Amino acid sequence: MTSPRTGDSGAHPVQIDTSKPHPARMYDYFLGGKDNYEVDREAAERFIKAAPEVRDGVRANRRFMHRAVRHVVAEGGIRQILDIGTGLPTEPNVHQIAHSVAPGTRVAYVDNDPIVSTHSMALMADDADTSVVLADLHDPRAVLDHPGVRGVIDFDRPVAVLLVAVVHFLAEADDPYGIVATLRDALPAGSYLVLSHATGDVHEDRREEAAAVYNKASAGLHLRPHAQVLDLFGDFTLVDPGLVKVTDWRPDAPSIPGAPPIGIYGGVARKDG
């Protein structure tokens, strides 16, 4: 199987739009990164004002991703990962985590922001086991069929699909359940779905003011309750402890007393035969 390094679906502009905040660049700012623009920083600061725990939340979400990747590679035997909505590179990246467990694990990164692709390609240019693809979750079939994905991922063998903090940028009109189902249906038995999703369940104000910050961004933020997030896993079997707050998914360190609640659910599920 060939392994093309990069690719563009052809359906999305390659220029970087700095007129609107972009979730990936705002996320980078929350993490303390520098790959963002003034418009992203201004929107992120408004979000922080409405939801002061957001920096803790994005770090907790990333630590969940680290643990989930180690699980599917070490315990699930996964050697192929499709990371959709990867965001700007922040070490350790998915392929670095996977390779620390099983060198040679193949990873395809997908994002719809050209700046993400540009930075990712520069950092991963010498890694033959990874590809970076500019494509959009709104068109899951195009993601699955992209040559940059197909050159790295063999869908006849188990795959872990990562949808970490990305599905909450799909509106109900986008049919998020249908989009995720298309991805699930493309996977063979033994595959995994790793998913995290923001929620208003854990805060009295449901963080509606914070979510409204994204109304002027390139993608809106759609908080969903536990039952709706659970539906995204379909008939996949959740591994213990199920769908829980990301801080409660197999933590590798004790919780910090008095830490603010984190409104992000996370889960890992397996497709049985």
**Average pLDDT score:** 89
Per the principal axes of the C-alpha atoms, what is the gross shape?
A: globular
SS elements, strand count: 9
Class derived from helix and strand content:
alpha/beta
SSE string, helix = H, strand = E? EHHHEHEHEHHEHEHHEEE
The number of helical segments is 10
Which oligomerization state do the chains in this entry correspond to?
A: single chain
Structure description:
This protein is α/β, with parallel strands linked by helices and 273 residues long. The protein contains ten helices and nine strands. Strands 1, 2, 3, 4, 5, 6, 7, 8 and 9 form a nine-stranded mixed beta sheet that branches.
Question: What characteristics describe this protein?
Answer:
nine-stranded mixed beta sheet, disordered N terminus, single chain, 10 helices, globular
Q: Secondary-structure blueprint of this entry?
A:
Blueprint: E1 6-8, H1 23-30, H2 38-50, H3 54-74, E2 80-84, H4 94-101, E3 106-111, H5 114-124, E4 130-134, H6 140-145, H7 147-150, E5 160-164, H8 176-185, E6 192-198, H9 208-212, H10 226-231, E7 237-238, E8 244-245, E9 264-270
Parallel strand pairs: 1-4, 2-3, 2-5, 3-4, 5-6
Antiparallel strand pairs: 6-9, 7-9, 8-9
Helix pairs in contact: 1-2, 3-4
